[in-house]
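User: Hey, my collaborator sent me this sequence without any context and asked if I could get a structure. I don't really work with proteins. Can you help?
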Amino acid sequence: MARPKRSAARPSSAIPQLAWHEVRPSPVVLVSGPQDLFADRAIRGLRDYLRAEDPSLEVSDIDAQTYQPGELLTLASPSLFAEPRLIRASSVEKCTDAFLTEALQYLAEPAESTYLVLRHGGGVRGKRLLEAVRAAEGSAIEIVCNELKKDSEKVDFARAEFSRADKRITPGALRQVVSAFSDDVSELAAACQQLIADSSDHITEDVVDRYYGGRVETTAFTVADLAIAGRTAEALIALRHALDSGADPVPVVAAFAMKIRAMAKVAGTSGSSGQLAGRLGMAPWQVDRARRDAQGWTDAGLGNAIIALADADASVKGASRDPIYAVERLITVIARRGASEK
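Assistant: No problem. I've predicted the 3D structure and written it out in structure-token form, which is a compact way to encode the shape of the chain:
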């Protein structure tokens, strides 16, 4: 099962640094980083865990930005019935001097049966407190909530959403969801949760189209994948959608070139994908994908496809007055697996 990767621990930290889904009780829990979605999930998860252990859990909130002296001490003071307490301090990156002083004092001697959550979104304010928490070995943990910047990180995140819900999603459907909501992780998470709630156990491209067809961006690789699969009409329609949304013919041809080049590399090879990966300068999954794409192709067909690619590449870079026609012709050649017209 794919799981979100843990963030690398800072060398200066003596406490565990965990991903949002690994949150667990600790006298002090520092929730750091700019990604509010992960922070909210971690804090909510901790609350739910503590409440499941003891329904009498008392939950209190502090706004560190408007903190008044004595608030933390008052909330952490023992009660008559000794209920466990969860104190959530927000906006620690904008905290008042009073909060900084009293939080440092509290850290030296945390209250019994009390869990203090410090939400710090980033920046240098409160640095002394962060350093003190990260040095508090045995009494604190840190939940690191960094932004997902790489497409691969977003794919891993979305895949894990479905895995945790015991839902299967096809690779194509997963790519569609991530493509449609890649600009906002919160929207991506919401889209995944809607599919999880409303769909069957197996989520396909058709299911994603039904929900988010208007949001799914047609990319150059979508066009190439359809053509390689022999779906000529769908590939031509996808090309038009891509061009209408502002795509340029040059990267479309480049996507075909990448695919055909990989297919040519694996043609006629034997051995496992792991063995071939290093020799061919490819990742194992790229070897597997290229082998699947190359099924049914002949050496002559690959040769014709490479010639068509060269012609299309020249056409979209100025050698032709109609570069769109050149790409359309390339699609028909690829969809026929390089076979000559009869």
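In plain terms: Residues 1-11 have pLDDT under 50 and may be disordered. You can pass these tokens on to your collaborator as they are.
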